[in-house]
Design goal:
globular; single chain; alpha+beta; 2,3-Dihydroxybiphenyl 1,2-Dioxygenase, domain 1; 4-stranded mixed sheet
Length: 143
């Protein structure tokens, strides 16, 4: 049996988050549920290389996730070019680049090429070639 982890985020403005994640960061819209007023109440976006993130609004009253705020996510990118493209789109859109693309080594001993951005509500998104367990994606496609 295989399992998949899907992180959950909550935004004050989930519609703006959806536009940022799909229009700027490079995610693909999978599911969007809107209320009668047309506001986004739930959305799911996927990364082209795999993985899905769920999100909704901070205003909902679900007992478990009510008021949940803030987060930091790591997205495995296939190539350095993919990371550079995220950086270029965020920069062009006037978004927040926390750390420009750079080479580093994570504590687990895995070298990586990474870039960290902040979405409009301050959640941190690090895009990197490190795959976990000391494994790094090949540098193919680097500029």
């Amino acid at each position: 049996m295989s399992s998949t982890v899907w992180p959950i985020l909550h935004y004050d403005d989930p519609g703006a988050a959806l536009r940022f994640l799909t229009g700027t960061a490079g995610f693909t819209e999978v599911v969007t549920i809107r209320d009668d007023a047309g506001d986004v109440v739930h959305a799911e976006v996927s990364w082209p290389g795999g993985g899905t993130v769920l999100f909704g609004g901070t205003a909902h009253d679900d007992g478990v996730h009510a008021g949940l705020r803030g987060g930091a996510l790591y997205v495995v990118a296939s190539t350095e070019t993919e990371i550079d493209a995220v950086h270029e789109r965020v920069t062009a859109a006037g978004g927040t680049v926390v750390r420009a693309p750079h080479r580093t080594e994570f504590a687990a001993g895995g070298p990586t090429y990474a870039c960290t951005i902040a979405d409009p509500e301050g959640n941190l998104w690090t895009f990197g070639t490190y795959r976990g367990g000391g494994v790094t994606n090949p540098r193919s496609g680097s500029g």
